[in-house]
Amino acid sequence: MSPEAVVTHFLFASALILAVGHGAGWLAQRLKQPYIVGQLAAGIALGPSLLGSTAPDAYAVLFPREIGTALTGLAQFALVVFLFAVGYELDLKILGDRARTVVTVAVASFVVPMAVGSGCALLFQQQLRELDMPGPTVGMVLFAGVALSITAVPVLTAIVRENNLADTVPGILAVSAAGLLDVIGWTVLAGTMLDSDSGEHALGWQGRALVAAGFTVLMLVAARPVLRRLLWRTRMEPSLRLALLIGFACASASVTQFLGLHAICGALLAGIVCPREDDGTLDPDLLAPLHVVSSLLVPYFFVFSGQSVTLNNMNTTGWLTLLVVTALAVITKVGSGTVAARLGGLDRDDSRTVGVLLSARGLTELIALNAGFQAGLVSKPLYTVLVFMALATTLLTQPLLNVVRRLSDHEPTRAPGRTEAAPGPDPRPADRASTTPVVDAG
């Protein structure tokens, strides 16, 4: 294929991806579902399982192999911008007076699913071999736990806002715990990436872990004051500052990608160390365009993810595994979050609300699954199972929340789940940003 033909195919494929992806996301919202549900469905529909099997000639014309590298590059760039924004918004100071309860809920809703997922990876090796999984390694076992432990902060924030829970104790507690869960989950995921040594690195995993630790310390200690001095105190034009910061995120992502940690870790770290305003608030001149860019490009990632979903090769074991994994993903999250919140002093109905909210998954889960798949920690059939688990748990969150409300024994004068929040710092940095499309995409 000539260079001109490659460009033509790429531009037409981009038009299709953007139109179908955002159109499906809009339709999902009209059906009272998160934006991600429509975009993920569009990505799978444009992949080999549906379009590739029903119209193979059209699929070959729309997505020739020659444009694969360009589409992959745009998908990774979209992830870098998205996770840079997630890291920038992450603020554990919102824990406030309920810090102990938040930590308890976050740890419990991570440890329990982690233990169940890792335990299943060890107990059901025969069934996993039928899904093309090799013998278990430390990284594979840990990744199985991480796959059940992820909570998607953006989609959770959207659900909290849409259900008028943003100024209630269960809403604030769930968002705060999910933010802490992000820190724990990405840290463990980074460890699984180090264990998956592909043999392309001169350093072993121990050497890469040492370099990664040094890079992390350097970023946490030096990056924020340097960025503030160079980009904020010089009163740089916001558009130029945005461009330089996205470049900084890409550079950080390239370092972690080189170390075998995947680009997502570097992008998230770059966002965490990015300076805020002097009063600690988020910079709207930075955050708004970050959301616009990431929400515009994120359909490329869904199509990229959909290329590895192989519904045609799903056997009976695969469908049974999907049912079991989905049930475990919901039960372990809802159960552990509910019990931990109850032990933290919340009443029965508010505790159930917290547990259900923490079961929300979304783009965050897909990012983790894609990283594990690229690192060889999960086979293609099991990857397909886990992608549909992420879709199913995202779909189930709102119906489960409705069930909790119907079961509520609160008095009629008090709306279900509306326990007023304790005074403290503004608990909703993510909620302030949630008016942009990217919140619904995650």
Let me know the number of strands: 0
Helices and strands, in order, run as HHHHHHHHHHHHHHHHHHHH
The number of helical segments is 20
How does the helix and strand content classify structurally?
Answer: mainly alpha
Overall mean pLDDT stands at 82
How much of the sequence is in beta strands? under 5%
| Percent helix range | over 70%
Low-confidence stretches: 413-441
Task: Please compute the radius of gyration using only Cα atoms.
Answer: 21 Å
Distance between the termini: 36 Å
Describe the main β-sheet briefly. Answer: none
Task: Sum up the overall morphology in one term.
Answer: globular
Characterization of the model:
It is a single chain. This protein is mostly helical and 442 residues long. 73% of the residues lie in helices and 0% in strands. It contains 20 helices and no strands. It has helices at residues 3-30, 35-45, 51-54, 56-62, 68-89, 99-123, 125-129, 138-149, 153-162, 169-195, 205-232, 238-258, 263-273, 284-306, 316-343, 348-358, 363-374, 380-407, 429-433, 437-441. Helix 16 (348-358) runs antiparallel to helix 18 (380-407). The protein is globular, with a radius of gyration of 21 Å. The protein starts with a helix and ends with a helix. The model is unreliable at 413-441 (pLDDT under 50).
